[in-house]
Amino acid sequence: TDTALQPLFKMSYSCSKVGDPRPGQPYKGGKFCAFLPDNREGQKTAMLLKKAFERGLTFQIKSYNGEERVTWGLIPHKTSWDGGKARNGYPDAHYLREVGAVL
């Protein structure tokens, strides 16, 4: 059985930059976890996700009730190890192919 790789992203408070909804305004961060299977395809996906993170593609800043917050961007992440596709978890036989196409 596969074990889970768990990339952890931690975003703290900061100021947004040009291109964000309200440049120069502070935003609220958070902790974000994503799960990948610990196999060859999962490790390849982890490397691609790392590159996407380094290029600023993993998260976006959105305004909620007048407060700027960090949220997941357009790249799909599995935020639960179980619960199936409906709960952003596994099993999901197509996830690695789908996220690979996005990346």
TrEMBL record:
Q: A Pfam family in this protein?
A: DTC
List each copy of the Deltex C-terminal domain by range. Answer: 9-100
The biological process GO terms on file are: Notch signaling pathway; protein ubiquitination
Looking at the keywords, is Transferase present? Answer: yes
Q: Which GO terms describe its cellular component?
A: cytoplasm
GO MF terms here are: ligase activity; ubiquitin protein ligase activity; zinc ion binding
Q: Its annotated pathway? A: Protein modification; protein ubiquitination
Where does this protein reside within or beyond the cell? Cytoplasm
Task: Identify the InterPro entries for this entry.
Answer: Deltex_C, Deltex_C_sf, Deltex_fam
What EC number(s) does this enzyme carry? 2.3.2.27
The reactions it catalyses are: S-ubiquitinyl-[E2 ubiquitin-conjugating enzyme]-L-cysteine + [acceptor protein]-L-lysine = [E2 ubiquitin-conjugating enzyme]-L-cysteine + N(6)-ubiquitinyl-[acceptor protein]-L-lysine
UniProt keywords (A-Z) are: Cytoplasm, Ligase, Metal-binding, Transferase, Zinc, Zinc-finger
Q: What is its main location?
A: cytoplasm
Family, similarity comment: Belongs to the Deltex family.
Q: Which PANTHER family match?
A: DELTEX-RELATED
Name of this protein: E3 ubiquitin-protein ligase
Origin organism is Origma solitaria
Q: Mind giving the lineage of the organism this protein is from?
A: Eukaryota, Metazoa, Chordata, Craniata, Vertebrata
| Protein encoded by which gene | Dtx3l_1
